[in-house]
Amino acid sequence: MTRMPPKTTQKKTQAEEHLFNIKLESSQAELFRENSSATLEPVDSHPETEVAPKSSICNMPSSSESTVNVVLFGNSSAVCFGDENILLGKEHVHPEQDKFPRRREISGRDVSVINILDLYEGEMYLDPVEYITGQLLNENNIHSFIFVLQQRFFTDADKLGIEWLQKTFGESVLPFVMILFTYESEEDSDTIIDDLKKNPVLEQLLQKCGDRYHTCSKSMNNQSEMKTLLEKIDHMVSENNQRCYTAEIYNTTSTQKEQLQDSKTQQTEDEAAGANLTVDNSSEAKTEEQTKIIEGDKEENPEHGTAEDRSQQFEEKQKTELFIKLNLTGKLEQKMKMEDVLQITKPSSENDLVHTFLQRLLLMNYTARCGEGSKINQTHSDGMINQTHPVAENADENDIYNDIFTQENEEAVQISLVHPMDVQMALFHCSDHFLRQLMVTKLSQCQYAVPLLVPNPFTREIEFPLWTFRQIKKSWKTTDKTSNVISKEKTTVTTDDEGLTKIMYNEKAIATADTPMVAFFRLGDVSSSKSQLIDSVINKKHSTFFHRHCTGSNTNRLLMDGVVEIAWYLPSGKSMDHFTDCVAFCNLHGDAGAQQLEKQVEILSEMSSVNVVFLPNLNKNDKRMAKLQKLYKLSKPMICLLSEESSHVTQMRAGKYRIGLKDRNQSAISKELTTTIRELISKPSVTFKLENVAKHSGIQMDEEFEDCKRGREAAKHLTNLLEGKDLSRNKETHLPCQGRLWKKWCQMNKELHKPQGSYIELKKSRKQMEMKKLREQQKACGLREFMKMFIEKLNSQTTDEMVFVLKWITIFLDNYTANISSFHNEYYEKWSKILNLKKSHDKSGQLETEQAELEKILEKINAAAFGLEHILREIGQIYESNTCVQKNKKEIGKFNVSSLPRLVADLMISGFPLELMDGDTAHVPQIWVSAVLDEVRNKLGDQRVFVLSVLGIQSSGKSTMLNAMFGLQFSVNAGRCTRGAFMQLVKVSEEMKVELKFDYILVIDTEGLRAPELAGMSTRHHDNELATFVLGLGNMTLINIFGENPTEMQDILQIVVQAFLRMKKVRLNPSCMFVHQNVGDITAGEKNMEGRRRLQEKLNEMTKLAAKEEACDAECFSDIITFDVQSDVRYFAQLWEGSPPMAPPNPSYSECVQELKNAILRKTSKSRIMTLSEFKTSLNDLWNALLHENFVFSFRNTLEIAVYRKLETEFGKWTWNLRSTMLSTEDKLLNRILNGDPQVAEKDLIENMKKKKEEVMELMKQYFEEDKDKETLIQWRSRFINKIEELHDELVREAKKKLDEVLQQRKTKEKLEKRKKEYENKLFNLSKELALRLKKEETDEHALKREFDSVWEK
Q1: Does residue 271 contact residue 542 with C-beta atoms inside 8 Å?
Q2: Distance CA 173, CA 175 (A)
Q3: Left, alpha or beta for 983 (phi > 0: left; psi -120 to 50: alpha)?
């Protein structure tokens, strides 16, 4: 019968647990030696391991008759379960629910399969393991333990598999272990040897198992492979002298466990009774106890391994327990992904540290790392004070000793603390490449240090996560008061007000930036906080590096030793800057003297510009002196910070300084250190570039991951086509469909829907023909090599590879277009020259020439912009042109055009935004967007979506707010960073779908209104059209306002309301919320109640006016756009907590964003939720209605429309006065002409109209100057005066033309009468002569006719 160790109910300290494990392993080893010495002989294939005792011998008949008992352990992800799976069958059942063994027939043999896959992972210290293993061995003798691993996917958790097996079944199990590698493709099956050579850890693991392994397909459906596996098991059993692993071996191990446990328990009870002392629950006492156990005398227990080994085992156990505490079990292998995080979920509880950290980090809330909520199983989470010692009724009130100095037993009240940095690093280790990148990007935005070198918590392999830095961009201003020219890759040069200091603006991808680097080390234990001192140098107001005095810090730090973090100081170009250029600061956590940190010290010391070392008082013979001497002998400058000295900064040798820390003011130390570093880095020195860290051997780089490498290669191959070409002509060359042809087509399409003048149908027909020709020209452009290669790459990649390709393309294009700064410098110089010409009142015409050149430079800047959005836009135009021109033929070369929407739909589902409105043409490509939405619907189903859009003035923080709210990455920058409109899907978690009644939020980000870049391009019409489109499209629109004054947005909303009233056939259900950004006063909501009331009254008044103008029934603004002035106006704190570029985001801003998000979700129940197909229909209906609208968008607000219509009415009266006068004048002059007066001239018309024209002009003057709306009317005065002048001149011209025609007709009539009379007289005379001549002759009738004809012909 299987014996199980009894469960102990008494709690054990971590040190006692570790001691128990050491004793257990010792006893197992002793038992193993006794058994093997008495009964066993070594096994040739595994000389360092002994086989089981003779009592474990089991009968093993011939292979045709035998029943083979095998145990499969490892990871279930290495196996594909199914009906064809010969060994494991259709489905995987966790061992706790499974009834094993399962009988299988393989190659005519009876195989008993015991499946305990997934048992070891995360359950190394849990009771179910003991129960299941006891049940397993009760009736089964095991021939082989098969460790299942997936080839090419060897995880950290897999490395613990054999260790778990040994701890559970004892050392005697190793001769019975074989590794089974599974592969997905046939090609992989041939590369196992190469894979082993590449992975030394895997090779060592295989050696531990006696070099026994087998390979098979992941689906385990190959009979030949399974037969070979059984043959290898037979061979292994033969090598083990027909022995099996039996219950007797396990019972012996269990007995030893029980005896050691009882002994330990008794010892603990005796010590507690004898000492009668309370346990000191301070972290110092706990550390001391652990040190005594871990660093015990090696001579007393030589078989236990070195103290270092025992310390490492203890640390690994603590780390494993940490991952279990954080609910990250299994995530080291099955990494968390972006889609797991970027969802609408319920707020996490404080005890869910990982998700609390993530939610705050995505909100750019730097309190994510402040440790709030880092207490697990906290009894008093509400912040109430614990009463640890209830006072007895008969207690002596004068006896204060127990109250003050006696503490309750630590084990009874211990609150399990998790260090905030352990939460961050555990999540980092459990995240995939994209989630890591997002994490690091957000940490950098919070002005936090980010991981540079990261040791694996279990294997200690060092990883350099370069990929995580790729999206980080930093901006700073470099100052130079000398005449030296500082060379920068991407700079814009300006000067200060006095012209004495050269200021260069820099914006760079931090991975490629060359900067000085200062490395910080600690040798031994020092009382001062290294990280805190670095913070005082970088940013005194913000803890860039987490230190012991930060909120939530504790001594339970497990994952930070050996981690190197990096942060950058970014100057602002002002006199208060600590440094004049960007400087990198690297901080090595842990004792730099430790052997396992040698590689980190080597890399940092080699790449640094300055080394700073924190030191205690060291003896000359201290082993750390060797490390210190090595650093000191380097040619690099070095600063020694001495914790036990109080001296000021002192130069020891050239480039070598010392500063005392003891009993000194922190500010003084910080100032001395800053000054010394500034002086040292001002001299020529080594510069640091992140990309160069990868050149060091002995570290792993995340960009060596296969998908990442292939993505980089594909992207580089693409962007190489752009190298060496003119920046301003690249789009024209490689993306021809979206250039001049597309812009002209959009302009014609808008004109087509807004016909004017006469012959409308003829004009429309001609425009349609021209538009079709433009589409044919677009199609004729075909696929250029760049686009052909881009589509090929995306079609041939998996989803992850595709995302890598797109991200690498973005990175390379950003680097490529960085040279656009030369255009900006050229623009700045030309603009400065124009300003000087204006000041000098230049009359030579040079000013006009320079302005024309300035416009050309601006065109170059716009043409040089080349990003992923332009590539995707080109795909859309290729699809539209081919769809419009040839309905039946939809292939270009070997590409099926109909597949393009499916390709981009995959991108949209993967989290990439789709361009909804082209920012260069302000036009929606309806055919393309509809096709993509159809494909999204085909892939996801007709999902329910809540449409959330944002609208606001340029640079008011729209994209920043959406990014913080949903963890997105819309473009954020000064100026017009977003052009047009983009939409992105945000998934709703399953638990929230039930509550919210929709599946996705469709987030729409838009470009800013009132953009100076659009001046002179019909800005008002563009803004009003965009605002109407965005508000009409969204279930909820966030009206973003910078400051407290909503006037500009108020005007736009009035136009939107009037436009909605005119779109009677479009079904709209808009609502809005006002968000006032950068409001510092926390009482702004209360103080602006009057302002909100006036806003509502104004909007209601304008709505009534608009409804009257459009003959609609609407009484208030909320009748058209749902809005509650009490709850739908929000005030946000300023974004930055200080002055950029070193200022972190304001936590109050993040809290405001979270409150707004919650408010939006509460309001979703009142909205009409659309499906994807309904959204597509609504989008097309709305855009078509906007194309037909030709009136309201040109006005500032509804009042202007009403005033303008009134002016048009008056203008009609004035024009009628002129027309009626002209009609009378025409009649008078016509009568004169008819009465024979041929002297009518143009001056007669002017003389007759002069008086009436003067009267009309006077009426106009009175109207424009005396009407109550004269302030509004003044903008149209000159235009209408010109129109009256033009009308007068046109009337005169038309009247003169008519009179001239009458005069010409009269003259022509007179000429005709005269000629008629002449012909009559001539004919009379000829007839008379003929009659007289023929009178004397007798002729017949024919002769008479002949004579008459001859006369007539004359």
Answers
A1: no
A2: 6
A3: beta
Q: What is the mean pLDDT of residues 1130-1143?
A: 89
Instruction: Output the six-digit token pair for 527.
Output: 């009382």
Q: How far apart are CA 1058 and CA 490, in angstroms?
A: 47
What is the C-alpha separation between 1030 and 983, in angstroms, rounded? 11
**Strands 891-892, 895-896: pairing kind:** antiparallel
Give the bridge partners for 478, in sequence order: 504
- Phi-psi category of residue 118: left, alpha or beta, with phi > 0 → left and psi -120 to 50 → alpha: left
- Of the two residues 502 and 356, the one the predictor is more confident about is 356
As a three-state string, the secondary structure of 814-876 is HHHHHHHHHHHHHHHHHHHHHHHHHHCCCCCCHHHHHHHHHHHHHHHHHHHCCCHHHHHHHHH
Instruction: Tell me the three state secondary structure of residue 1347.
Output: helix
For residue 894, what are the CA distances in angstroms to 721, 781, 788, 797, 885? 21, 16, 10, 17, 18
| Residues 477/572, Cβ–Cβ less than 8 Å | yes
In degrees, to the nearest 5, what angle opens at C-alpha 1070 toward C-alphas 1067 and 1072?
Answer: 175
Beta-sheet strand order (sheet of 177-183): 102-106, 109-115, 67-74, 144-150, 177-183, 213-217
pLDDT for residue 118: 74
Contact 847, 834 (CB under 8 A): yes
Going 1100 to 1102 to 1108 to 1112, the CA torsion angle's sign is negative
The predicted-structure confidence for 1295-1333, as pLDDT tens digits, reads as follows 777 777 777 777 788 788 888 888 888 878 877 777 777
Burial class (CB in 10 A: 0-12, 13-18, 19+), 625: middle
Kind and range of the H or E run holding 657 = strand 656-660
| SS3 state of residue 53 | coil
CB-side neighbour CA atoms (13 Å) of 654: 3
Integer Cα distance of 1266 and 191 in angstroms = 92
Give the strands of the sheet with 491-495, arranged side by side: 473-480, 502-509, 491-495
Dihedral of alpha carbons 87, 90, 94, 99, sign: negative
Helix ranges restricted to H, 1164-1269? 1172-1188, 1198-1234, 1242-1266
- Residue 186 above 90 pLDDT? no
If you search the block for the tokens 């009256």, which residue do you land on? 1284
DSSP labels, 273-301: HHH------SHHHHHHHHHHHHT--TTT-
Question: Which residues partner with 104 through β-bridges?
Answer: 111
Q: Is the pLDDT of residue 599 over 80?
A: yes
Q: Read off the amino acid at residue 520.
A: F
Looking at residue 592, the DSSP 8-state letter turns out to be T
Distance, CA of 1312 to CA of 1308 (rounded, Å): 6
Say which residues have a Cβ less than 8 Å from residue 299's Cβ, sequence separation at least 6: none
Residues with Cβ within 8 Å of 1126's Cβ and at least 6 positions away in sequence, in order, are: none
Q: What pTM value is reported for the model?
A: 0.70
